[in-house]
Amino acid sequence: MKSKLAIVKIGGNVIEDPQQLSKFLMFFAQMPEYKILVHGGGKLATELAKKLGIETQMVGGRRITDAANLEVITMVYAGLTNKNIVAQLQAKACNAIGLSGADGDTIQAHKRRVGEIDYGFAGDVDGINASTIGILLDNDFTPVFCAMTHDGLGQLLNTNADTIAAEIAIGMGKTFETTLYYCFEKKGVLSDVDDNDSVIEKINTKTYQTLLEERKIVDGMLPKLENCFHALQHDVERVCIGDLSMVGPNAQRFTTITL
Amino acid sequence: MKSKLAIVKIGGNVIEDPQQLSKFLMFFAQMPEYKILVHGGGKLATELAKKLGIETQMVGGRRITDAANLEVITMVYAGLTNKNIVAQLQAKACNAIGLSGADGDTIQAHKRRVGEIDYGFAGDVDGINASTIGILLDNDFTPVFCAMTHDGLGQLLNTNADTIAAEIAIGMGKTFETTLYYCFEKKGVLSDVDDNDSVIEKINTKTYQTLLEERKIVDGMLPKLENCFHALQHDVERVCIGDLSMVGPNAQRFTTITL
To answer: Where are the domains of chain A?
Structure first.
C-alpha cells in the first residue's frame, strides 16, 4: 500500500499575514502524513522591487521577469519568505528543509520560449526529481519549496507556485497516495461567488460537467479546476481547495475534487 | 577507515567577482571527496541595505544585526548568493543543496547575549546536527551553507561564516577525516605580509610558537590561526589556508596547518 503524501500550496494571503501564517504552520506541522509545502511570494517581491526603483511589468496577471526582477524574487521567495517559514516550522517540531528547484536538482525547467510576449526568466516545468524528493521524505525532512526552478545550465527561473505544487503531486503520485491542497482566501469552490458559505463539497468529472453547463464555474476558478483535473488524470488521488483551516484538526467545509 | 570530507569556506572576494566565483565553483565541483561549501555574503548585503536606506552599524569589524539588517542578510545570503551558487554547481554536475542552519535544523545557535555591545540578531553556534548532514552527504548531496543559523524557536540569526565552517568541520570530524579549507585573497599565511609569495607552507603547534615569538603572525591572521588550532584540537585533521587555486587540480603553494 502506498504511503500518504500531502502537497500543500499557500499563497500571498497567508504569507503576508504573520498571524495567519503562524496558524497555518501550526496546522501544517501537525499533519501526520508525509508532507511538502509550496509557497508563492505574494506582494513582498513587488514591494521590494518598488523600493529599489525596479519596475515590475505584469501582462495578463503574469509578471515579466527581467534580470532585476529575478534578483528580487530570488531574494524574497528563496531567502526571506522561505527561510522564515523553515525557521518557524523547526520551532513547531517539523523538520523543514527549504528548497528551490535548483537545490538537489529537484525541479527541472526551461526558460519559457518567447512568443507574442517575452516573459523573461519565467520557467516552464519539464519534470521533478521524484527519487531525490523521496529520499528527503524517507529521511524525515519536510521539503518547503519556493516558486523557483532552474534550467540545469546555471539559470534560476521564476515559476508559478500552483504549477510547482501540481507537478510535484503528479511526480510523486507513482510512489505515494498524493493529495494536493490549494489553500486560498475562500472556503472552497463556491456555487455562488458572493456567498462564501456556498461551498461545493464534492466535485468529480461528471458533476464538473454539470457545473460548467450551469455556468457556475467562472473566471479565475476555471483554469484552476482545469489544472486540478489535469493532476487527477496523472496519478494524483484527490485535490482539495479551501482556506487554511482545511489542513487543521477541525477542518470545516472545503471542496474535494476527484475523477 | 574514515571517508575524506572537505569543508571549504569562501568569502566576499570570491563571491563578488563572477569570473572568480565561476572558476572556484569549477574547482569545487571537481573535488572527488565528500564536500561542503560555506559562503559569507560580502558587500552585497551592505549595498542592498544602503539602497533601501537601512543603516548598517559596524563595531570592531562586526555587523550589528538589527531586524531590518537581518531581513537584508536573509535575502542576500540565503536567497541571492546561495541559490545562484547552487544553480551554478548543478550546471557543473555537482548535486548542491543550499542550506541555512535552520534547514534540517543543521546548525543550532543562540542569540548572542547582550554585553557591552548588543549585536542584535547575531548567532553563536551551540552545535551542528552531524547525523543530518551525514544523511545528506551519504545521499550524494553537496551541502552549500550560507552564514545563517537559527535558535530553534523560530528566529534566524546572522552567524560568522568562518565559525560555521569550523563548527561543521569539528562536528563532522568524528565520522569523517575532515580538512577545513579557508579560501581568501592571499596565497596563504605569509612570513612577510607585503610579499604574497612568502607563503609558509606548513605550520604545526611547535612552529606556530616560533612564528609567534618572531612576531611573524600579526593582526587579522592571529585570531584566524587561533581558530584553526581550536578546530585541530577538536577532531579536524588539517586546516588549509590559501587562495581559490588551493582546491583546484593544479594547486599552487598554500599553508597547511596540523597539530
So the answer is: 3-257
Size of interface A-B (CB pairs under 8 A): 118
Q: Which H/E stretch holds residue B30?
A: helix B18-30
Question: Is B3-257 assigned to CATH 3.40.1160.10?
Answer: yes
Q: Which residue has the cell 525557521?
A: A87
Report CA Rg, chain A.
18
Residue B23 CA to chain centroid, in angstroms? 18
Q: Whole-model pTM above 0.95?
A: yes
What does the alpha-carbon distance between residue B234 and residue A207 come to, in Å, rounded to a whole number? Answer: 66
Q: Do B74 and A79 touch (CB under 8 A)?
A: yes
Contacts of B86 in chain A (CB under 8 A): 100, 102-103
Q: What is chain A written as a DSSP string?
A: -PEEEEEEEE-HHHHT-HHHHHHHHHHHHH--SEEEEEE--THHHHHHHHHTT---EEETTEEEB-HHHHHHHIIIIIIIIHHHHHHHHHHTT--EEEE-TTGGG-EEEEEPPPSSS--BSBEEEEEE-HHHHHHHHHTT-EEEEESEEE-SSS-EEE--HHHHHHHHHHHHTTTEEEEEEEE-SSSS-BSSTT-TT-B--EE-HHHHHHHHHTT-S-TTHHHHHHHHHHHHTTT--EEEEE-GGGGSTT----EEE--
Q: Which residue is closest to A70 within chain B, CA to CA?
A: B80
Partners of A98 on chain B (C-beta within 8 Å) are: 78, 98-100, 102-103
CA distance, residue A145 to nearest chain B CA (Å)? 12
Partner residue opposite B87 with nearest CB, options A84, A88, A150? A150
Max CA distance (Å), chain B: 54
Q: Does B100 touch chain A (CB under 8 A)?
A: yes
Are residues A148 and B84, on separate chains, in Cβ contact within 8 Å?
no
> Kind and range of the H or E element at B5?
strand B3-10
- How confident is the prediction along chain A (259 residues), in pLDDT tens digits per residue? 899 999 999 998 899 999 999 999 999 999 999 999 999 877 899 999 999 999 988 887 778 999 999 999 999 999 999 999 999 999 999 999 999 999 999 999 999 999 999 999 999 999 999 999 999 999 999 999 999 999 999 999 999 999 999 999 999 999 999 999 999 999 999 998 889 899 999 999 999 999 999 888 877 788 889 999 999 999 999 999 999 999 999 888 999 999 9
Q: Which of A75, A141, A142 best tests the B interface by mutation, with the highest count of B CBs <10 A?
A: A75
Judged by DSSP in three states, B88 sits in helix
Give yes or no for a contact between A179 and A170, defined as CB atoms under 8 angstroms apart. Answer: no
- Closest-CA residue in chain A for B141? A104
ipTM of predicted complex: 0.96
Question: What's the CA gap between A230 and A100, in Å, rounded?
Answer: 23
Closest chain A C-alpha to B152 CA, distance in angstroms: 5
